[in-house]
Amino acid sequence: MFDDLIREIQNLEMIQPGGVRIxxxxxxxxxxxFDRVCPKEPCKCNFKVLFVDWCDKVPDECxxxxxxxxxxxxxxxxxxxxxxxxxxxxNEYARSAVSEALGRAARKSRPTKxxxxxxxxxxSLKHIPSPVKVVLPPEADEVLRQDFVCSxxxxxxxxxxxxxxxxxxxxxxxxxxxxxxxxLTRKAIQAFPTIAESVRLIHDEDFAANLIxxxxxxxxxxxxxxxxxxxxxxxxxxxxxxxIKVDVNLFQRVDDAxxxxxxxxxxxxxxxxxxxxxxFLNGMVHKRHKLGHCQGIVDQKYIEKTGDMTYLPGQRLxxxxxxxxxxxxxxxxxxxxxxxxxxxxxxx
Length: 348
Known about the structure:
Layout: H1 2-15, E1 33-37, E2 46-50, H2 51-56, E3 63-64, E4 71-72, H3 80-108, H4 138-144, E5 145-149, E6 156-160, H5 174-190, H6 192-202, H7 205-236, H8 254-265, H9 275-293, H10 300-306, H11 321-347
Antiparallel strand pairs: 1-2, 2-6, 3-4, 5-6
């Protein structure tokens, strides 16, 4: 009996050397997008890729996270639910195959009582704790979700907030990212009433207010980061940029970046913005630094660098939606001016 069973099991592998390949129908959303999650700690970004593009454009060897740019084998981007679903389908296939093998072995052997519970297959997964994330209600999720099309390989994907890297080829465009950041920021500000109302239905008024405050502050980080990347990328397009020494992170410092543009192109940020706009931009850059590194707590250095006398050391910064709108408009004007400078110099 058991010799026959062993032969039947061995026959399964002989039929399909190297293991058994099972086709599984994976669910997608109404637009045909496929849920993915970054396998890298501490990113764990949730994003989506159009299923046909995931199949056709993502190579078998590597895929990329649109947030952190981390790469891994495509199968490592399965969500927890997808991993459990695939495991269950595999288990069911194995149970069915063993059951059929048992039946064939029994028919070849002397009559023997076989218990249906003789074989069982189980798997367990060790979960690594990850940071607790706020799960937005569907209405808020839809408002903040941003769709992208890679300018290099045309892969279509979407993320909550900004996506910097193509999941298929890893391509990253600073100019495209800047434009998308402005678009998403304005979209988020306009959606605040919808987001707040949706969150109140699940939590409470205080939770909704705190969430909106966090989203507002996140926009400052996104905008300043986009500013740094796009101004640096445009600067590199200037014909003589390679002859000018540029320090790391220089383009997140307004005065230093303006000086470098003046050296390379004879035009500074003051040629693109008013004095009031320049002072505002400089202040927002310093506020972003405090939010990112000091939890928004003001110190004397911040007051000296910005001239902002509305705070005392030890107080916490407050960022309002209008600050975000104003910053978006100022950055749009600045980058438009710098792009014109690059076009001018390339035409000379």
